[in-house]
Amino acid sequence: MRFVYLILICFAAPVAALTAWLRGRRDPSRRERLSDRFGRPQLEVSKPVLWVHAASMGEVQAGAVLVRRLLKEYPTHQVVVTTQTTTGAARVKELFGNQVQHCYLPYDLPFAVGGFLDRVQPRLALILETELWPTLFRACKRRGIPILIASARISPRSFARYRRLTSLFKPVLSRDIVVIAQSPDDAARFKLLGAGDVRIVGNIKFDIEVSETVKATGAAFRESISNPINLASRRFIWVAGSTHPSEEVAALAAHRRLMALQADALLVLVPRHPQRFEAVKTIIEQSGLTFVTRSSGAVVDAAVSVLLIDTMGELLNFYASADMAFVGGSLAPIGGHNLLEPAALAVPIVVGPYLSNAQDIADRMLSAGAARIVKSTEGLGDVVLDWARKPEARKKVGQNGANVVLGNRGAVDRVMALIAERLRIV
Q1: How much of the chain is in helix, strand and coil states, percent to nearest 5?
Q2: Cβ-count burial of 236 within 10 angstroms (0-12 exposed, 13-18 middle, 19+ buried)?
Q3: Reading across the β-sheet that carries 78-83, which strands appear in turn?
Q4: pLDDT of 131-165, one tens digit each?
Q5: pTM for the predicted model, two decimal places
Q6: Which has more confidence, 44 or 412?
Q7: 29, 77, 86, 364 from 92: Cα distances, Å
């Protein structure tokens, strides 16, 4: 199986590189540092390295608190963060600036992996969530580099795919790798794939840190759109965050119903992927609602019904300004996105039925009365109208969410203890 895998990777890697280069005609960031993918990262390595891999923007955001702890507790080390996506790379830069170094994860080819490890020489590899790379893991084990898969999770759908390839993954998971699972279900799935050392520590996402700067930015935005004559007259603001195709249409339909109740209500629409910004702009134009884009810098006055966020890294700031939030990827069959960001800000949440990407978190939120679930565009509109009419009810739901976050903290402390343990061993 390993031989077949290597043959497939040898064919897939050039195709992926060519695709990135061609897409770079429209998005130059896709051509950025293609040499990284082939094991030639342009890094300045001057200290012992702690390496963190976070595949995309979501993993980067979730792992931010862990990276900050590494920076604080290991000041004599250098933190290198790898991603696979350009949006993940951009988020690393936004969150950490020059505090960490970034490069893209190499393709899982022996020469690319070898070149990367020769250059970086990590003392420890910390892989976030579900990233299993057989060639990379084998190379780390040969070099004695400890691997920890932190906040590890496998959805039932992904597990079904991985299990068909157990013979490929079992040899690299069976020893010398610590799987730090989010939940007992995740731990059981990893054991069935052949993992030998599995610990259950909870989900590091619950250790989310919301800075006072974020809260202040949200409050400032709300104040900036208030009625200058009657400041007591609050505009109802709701955020549709991390949306996918069809979800923008649903949010706009719900907002049109809301405007019949509150004509000055504001929808803040935040598409998940930047390449869709123009398409979403067209969807709003077709809806007939008055809107401005964030990038335009236009004033969001009472005549503006929709604010399209066509910039990156601002979703949390707008959650901090909101009366309620719809978290996308859940009404479309994607699997849902981060519920904990609005919850940590005590913002009430509505989601669709597709929540497999973080089912454990969703179950906790729903059972605690910290979110409401809908199955249709009409259902979304019903919840928006209900919460617009009932501020006390939505406030209670928001507080329930904040309590869920507070009650499940501590996973990062447990992960840091395991990191210290592995570093002592080597």
Answers
A1: 50, 15, 35
A2: buried
A3: 101-104, 78-83, 49-53, 122-128, 147-152, 177-181, 197-200
A4: 888 999 999 999 999 999 998 988 888 888 888 88
A5: 0.82
A6: 412
A7: 14, 18, 10, 29
Domains 46-202+410-425 and 212-407 are alike in CATH topology:
yes
Beta bridge partners, 106, equal: none
Give the side-chain half-sphere CA count within 13 A for 8. 7
The tokens of 423 are what? 């570093």
Place of tokens 């019903």: 382
d(CA 392, CA 274): 35
Sort strands 266-271 and 197-200 into parallel, antiparallel or unpaired.
unpaired
Q: Note the pLDDT of residue 109.
A: 92
CATH superfamily of 212-407: Glycogen Phosphorylase B; (3.40.50.2000)
Would residue 248 show up in a list of annotated catalytic residues for this protein? no
Q: Give residue 30's pLDDT.
A: 58
* Predicted pLDDT of residue 15: 73
Highest mean pLDDT among 52-66, 129-143, 200-214, 284-298: 284-298
Element at 102 (helix H, strand E): strand 101-104
Range from 84-88, 150-154, 183-187, 389-393 that averages highest in pLDDT: 389-393
25 pLDDT more than 70: no
Q: Catalytic residue, from 44, 59, 73, 278: name it.
A: 59
Could you tell me which CATH number the domain at 46-202+410-425 has?
3.40.50.11720
Q: How far apart are CA 133 and CA 136, in angstroms?
A: 5
Q: What are the E-state strand segments in 306-386? A: 306-308, 324-327, 349-351, 371-373
Query: How is the chain split into domains, by residue range?
Result: 46-202+410-425, 212-407
